[in-house]
Amino acid sequence: MARRSDHNREELYALAMQAARDIAVHDGLKGLTARNIAKRIGYSAGTLYNLFKNLDEIALHVNAGTLDQLHDRLGEVALSGKPKKDIRQLLDAYLDFIGGNDRLWSLLFDHKLPDGTPLPDWYRARIARVLSLLEAALAPLFPEPDHPECQLSARVLWSSLHGICQLANADKLEIVSDEDTRALAHALVENYLAGLKARLG
Amino acid sequence: MARRSDHNREELYALAMQAARDIAVHDGLKGLTARNIAKRIGYSAGTLYNLFKNLDEIALHVNAGTLDQLHDRLGEVALSGKPKKDIRQLLDAYLDFIGGNDRLWSLLFDHKLPDGTPLPDWYRARIARVLSLLEAALAPLFPEPDHPECQLSARVLWSSLHGICQLANADKLEIVSDEDTRALAHALVENYLAGLKARLG
DNA sequence: TCATTTATTGAACGCTGTTCAGTTTATATA
DNA sequence: TATATAAACTGAACAGCGTTCAATAAATGA
């Protein structure tokens, strides 16, 4: 029942986002509640609704940050122009990233907007930015630089990898070890690329 | 606050399961609440807890039913012994199934047990049963009938397909049409199989 | 007929997202 | 400087959630 000047709007926004990230890292989606975030920054839950439309928006921003992190990590892989080598390196960077950020990575796919709510454009751009890294690594395989099958293959690999990691993580694949997950991911990439080469060359 | 003899335990169980399925079909996971299911069968929420340990168990049983349905549908595909042909047919059956049962299919992957809770064995068996259909179709590609890479490839295809359909469904792939989803799925299968053939033969 | 077991319920607990009247403070204006 | 306006913030409230449980009533066994 007061107005405080501890933090201005931007500071508060940053505080809330950091709190949300911290919670997501430690407790995942289930801990990401308005009252939880608010308590962590010393404000009431209602205050969050001055900064964000709703909780979904907060989750979306956390996820956008994760996509950016992933983009930066994958961006560190220096492309050699040899797709097989480059994709392998991207894959390892991807697996390392999700190994070290498993709760954030889960949130990326566990959080869903209500039915019929489209993803905002600024969020879609984050996805496209990651996909473009894959496209760049795959491009040398195709005759033209922006062959439609290049975009398609980037999406196949991205979503397939997601499926493998998600089901393996949820223990829904009748597999045993973390090594098995890596083996699945590598088999996907190796065979898919070998298939591309065989069919195109 | 009474005892009723409208239904015995088994009938009640069946009623609750059917109600849960109906709700899942129409409203997905978000509509699958104890009070919702109870209202639909004319009992109170507490009664459900005589039949099931908790809501998760109900969701698990709905999902087991969906896996059985999927298994039956895929089982209708007559295997020719030609992996490419057979896998293509299985893929089409799979895509048809999830096209006609999208909410049930989503529940299969949206619902998660609390952290650290293992899937019960009877549920894992349902997954294994579906995977074995894929293994049977892939088997002719490998020298021995139960080559380890055959099991592995079945898991790669199953989880990759899941990833493609899930991300496409959530509109997280920057794709446009349902046809694009089919194209991704077919690209996965075609290239993966071509790769297997190239590497093994 | 009476005791025991079983089925069922409604109320309750502690959560959830979200809204909002009410209050306090900062800022702009006169 | 005094006053009006705007902005920030809170606590309580609402309707919902999963789950538990004392109380009740009916069915069953003795």
From TrEMBL, chains A, B:
Residues 10-70 form the HTH tetR-type domain. Pfam families: TetR_C_33, TetR_N. One of its GO terms (molecular function) is transcription cis-regulatory region binding. Keywords: DNA-binding, Transcription, Transcription regulation. It comes from the Bacteria. InterPro entries: Homeodomain-like_sf, HTH-type_TetR-like_transc_reg, HTH_TetR, MT1864/Rv1816-like_C, Tet_transcr_reg_TetR-rel_C_sf. PANTHER family: HTH-TYPE TRANSCRIPTIONAL REGULATOR BETI, HTH-TYPE TRANSCRIPTIONAL REGULATOR RUTR. This is TetR family transcriptional regulator. It comes from Aestuariispira insulae.
